[in-house]
Amino acid sequence: MLWNDELFVAWGGNMGMFSKMVRGAVMVCVCVVAMPVGAVTVIDIGPFVRKDAFTDIKLSPDGEFLAATVQKEDRTGLVVLSRKDNRVLAAASLGKNNHVADFWWVNPDRVMFSVAQKLGSLDLPQLTGELYAMNADGSKKENLLGYRVEAEGVATRIQPKKAEAVAGFLVDTLPDDDRNVVVMIRPFGDHSYTRAEKMDVYSGRRVLLARAPVQESDFLTDGSGVVRFAYGRTVENASQLYYREGDGKEWQRINDELDTARVELPLGFGADPRVAYLNVERADGTDAIIAWNVATGERKDVLRNANVDPDAVLHAHDRTGSPMAAVFFDGKPDVLPLDPQHPEARLLQSVEEAFPNEFVEITSVTRDGKLALVQVSSDRNPGDFYVFDVAARKMDYLLSRRDWLDPERLAPMTPIQLKARDGLVLHGYLTLPVGTDGKNLPLVVYPHGGPYGIRDRWGFDGDVQMLAAAGYAVLQVNFRGSGGYGRGFRQAGARQWGGAMQDDLTDATRWAVRTGVADAKRICIYGASYGAYAALTGAAKEPDLYRCAAGNVGVYDLTMMHTRGDIREAKSGRYYLRDWIGEAKDVAAVSPANMADRIKAPVFLAAGGEDERAPVQHTELMERRLKAAGVPVEAVYYRTEGHGYYKEENQRDYYTKLLAFFSRHLGGATAK
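RESULT FIELD:
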């Protein structure tokens, strides 16, 4: 059995803190403002390094329980608490590098969860395809589906589970069925054909509902739990969307990317079962949400923002699960209803009015609609949770992700817009240190990782707040290739490593100087993963622009990406390397390791010895090349860490060294 019952002991401190917060203990506010010490300043990095008290939390359908994900050093577990007396009733963890990715109350007494694996803190979680479940009191724990089922034995007391080389993913919790859910089953291997099956949440027994008409399909059900849409990708990596009228009906293809040059994805059915909502790419500009009449084929635009794509679609927490609003991050988040008359859309609007300038989400609602769990967050607030009594219109504070941080002492994040040298409009964010006039400041240019399809958003970012507390302005730019600004904007970054994507960062840096925000003699560029590549490439291409450069878990030899690391291991990864980065023979010239002799600024490097995404050999090579070129370089290695650092002592060491490096070259605070 893979369940780790030592979770109660290992996370005892967190559980105690969890219960304290639920009881409404006084919030502890840790001062993070730089304090003078002689001729320098220091900040306490502890509040930033400290992990969230929990990640997510949801009410059970009857409101009796709360389920929450809780982070430990290198894993994320699930706990269940009694809402009546705040007792911890159950806990589950699956060991090192295993993280509860999401969880769902499948009936008032049983919670199911999925698992993801991350080998480092900056890794994107990779779903394992495993589904587990347990009762609210911790009983009847079961590994329902996934590659580890066989290791536990292929039978339960109720029904045999299938020991197969497959992955499973939730499609529909079936609110009217307390025994079963709908799951998508994906056989192992590239370009497999998936199946939709009904699964018993106690035994794991499954019954076939539908087979996919296209490889790598996901499925979408209607409000009655019937599988109606399938969408996936062909061997040519082209998206296809299929629809069927109901159980046993034939699949009809309604979009093929090869024919239409766009991707269409289903979002769900509206209150009128004849209307389905689709997210539709446009060849030019941003994505739109459309209403598609399944009977007549009529299409009607419902929501579209001229600057950004829909970032997320919010589904109602009733039995239909219909889409009821969309979130657009056009600078700050804007929540727009698909159906302004939907009861939950009206509820959300009324709650938003109580929290101006914050991002409000309803995370769960009891089955009778009487209680709602509300999350409130912002650029200076990692997340507060409230229980809202809908009938009484009463909001009770529940807990905070980081109650030790005082939002009033943190720095606001301001949306910005500028034009690149070719006229392309770029969006981003500027965070200024508290207590400054916003002029002539030391600046850290902070490109995001990815890079494709990833973007910076308005919201709390611990690294940005740490840098601002140390006295730096922080500039984040969604350069071309980033997600969220339309298909054309994303594809404009293809094969532009060291090219137009890098020019966007240069243009944004010069914008910060031109507008008077940045002191031209005190600018550093810093990032992780792709951001580290961009930092070192920026220092090479613009040796007089940046005073220093820092890279964490970076890729510095693009040719090596074709021979080392986990991206190349899958066929889709090899397509990605070829189509988006470039052929091995073509990328040597834009590799920072081959441009070390062009770098003048001092460099700080850090890496994990067990990094599979950006193997440590990238950093070791970069360090050697810089030393050979006579460039001042400081490198630190955490040999037991991966793509980012889990252990608190390693995080403290890393950030202490990083801030000391910035302080020497920009004059900001050091860490204590």
